[in-house]
């Protein structure tokens, strides 16, 4: 089950717009999508409530789910694709918990220098987390609310290249997004002929997400692993009654080896007398053993 989290510390960067459109794209593709709202503000849940009464999205449900960033729980049963909308200011342990559940993180970035600085700090913290550092969780930036009449697109791409952050697409600022969000809809719920130019901007984003959302197939020609069948061990025979194989002659008796040991070695070194024996000999007393024997 792929999980895509939309993360940026700075508020107003377009996280909810990006998250709701990703969830709507999954739902329009026939997937059992879930929009997890990790933001206490609850903007994604408010969008889902507006969406519930729209005839245009009948048969394309999105499961709503409110989650605490301090305790990101497991999604409900039956869900196949998950999108997490996270709050601004997410950092530290709360950010690490979100990354532990995510397969991909999209970092929405606006054009201003303040947005770029905040996104750079967030990306630096993300790179230090084990799942991101090992490549198990992919991270990429998406330009949000860009004016097509300016060079904002080029500025953001140069900025992303400078910090080593993949830059995969641009979402321009149009009234189409405003009208859709107000009704609980997305561009993917609208007639394509009316929003085709905006839909084209999502293609590179979905191309980048495709290997994350689908399992990687096995290389062509790769041999399938053959299960190894272990045979049952043969019963052990009793050594006393087990016959000797005919092909193996009985072992020949080993010749006896006689070792001559000098007598002085067998006798050992002279026993050292104890203090009581030495005192008895000096005083002319009988040995201590004899004294004990006589007393008995």
Short description:
39% of the residues lie in helices and 14% in strands. With 296 residues, the chain is of the alpha/beta class.
Question: Could you please describe the fold and organization of this structure?
Answer:
With 296 residues, this protein is an alpha/beta fold. It is 39% helix and 14% strand. The protein has one domain (3-213): P-loop containing nucleotide triphosphate hydrolases (Rossmann fold, 3-Layer(aba) Sandwich), CATH 3.40.50. The protein has helices spanning 15-28, 43-51, 92-101, 113-127, 130-133, 152-163, 175-182, 192-200, 203-213, 263-267, 275-283, 288-295; strands at residues 3-6, 33-37, 62-66, 81-85, 104-109, 138-146, 167-172. Strands 3-2-4-1-5-6-7 form a seven-stranded parallel sheet, sandwiched between helices. The longest helix has 15 residues, at 113-127. The chain is globular, with a radius of gyration of 40 Å. The N and C termini lie far apart (92 Å).
- The helix/strand series, from N terminus to C terminus, equals EHEHEEHEHHEHEHHHHHH
Please bin the fraction of helical residues.
25-40%
Anisotropy-based shape = globular
Strand content: 5-15%
Mean pLDDT: 78
| Sheet having the most strands | 7 strands, parallel
Low-confidence stretches: 222-234, 288-296
Structural class: alpha/beta
Report the strand count: 7
Stated plainly, the CATH topology is called Rossmann fold
At the fourth level of CATH, the homologous superfamily is: P-loop containing nucleotide triphosphate hydrolases
CATH architecture: 3-Layer(aba) Sandwich
Per DSSP, the total helix count is 12
Instruction: Determine and state the CATH class.
Output: Alpha Beta
Cross-sheet strand order for the largest sheet: 3-2-4-1-5-6-7
């Amino acid at each position: 089950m792929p999980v895509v989290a939309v993360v940026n510390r700075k508020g107003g960067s377009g996280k909810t717009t990006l998250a709701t459109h990703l969830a709507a794209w999954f739902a329009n593709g026939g997937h059992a999508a879930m929009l997890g709202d990790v933001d206490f503000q609850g903007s994604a849940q408010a969008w889902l409530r507006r969406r519930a009464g729209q005839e245009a999205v009948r048969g394309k449900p999105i499961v709503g789910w409110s989650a605490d960033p301090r305790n990101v729980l497991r999604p409900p049963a039956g869900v196949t694709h998950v999108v997490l909308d996270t709050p601004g200011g997410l950092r530290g342990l709360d950010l690490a918990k979100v990354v532990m559940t995510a397969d991909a993180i999209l970092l929405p970035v606006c054009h201003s220098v303040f947005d770029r600085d905040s996104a750079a700090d967030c990306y630096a913290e993300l790179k230090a987390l084990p799942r991101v550092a090992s490549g198990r969780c992919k991270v990429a930036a998406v330009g949000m609310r860009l004016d097509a009449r300016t060079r904002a697109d080029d500025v953001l791409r140069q900025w992303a290249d400078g910090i080593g952050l993949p830059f995969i697409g641009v979402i321009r600022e149009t009234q189409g997004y405003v009208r859709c969000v107000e009704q609980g809809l997305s561009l993917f719920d609208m007639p394509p002929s009316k929003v085709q130019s905006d839909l084209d901007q999502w293609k590179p984003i979905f191309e980048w997400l495709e290997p994350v959302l689908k399992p990687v197939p096995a290389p062509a020609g790769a041999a399938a692993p053959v299960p190894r069948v272990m045979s049952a061990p043969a019963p052990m025979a009793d050594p006393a009654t087990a016959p000797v194989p005919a092909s193996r002659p009985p072992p020949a008796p080993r010749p006896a080896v006689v070792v001559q040991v000098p007598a002085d070695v067998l006798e050992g070194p002279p026993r050292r007398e104890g203090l009581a024996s030495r005192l008895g000999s000096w005083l002319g007393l009988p040995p201590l053993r004899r004294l004990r024997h006589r007393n008995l």
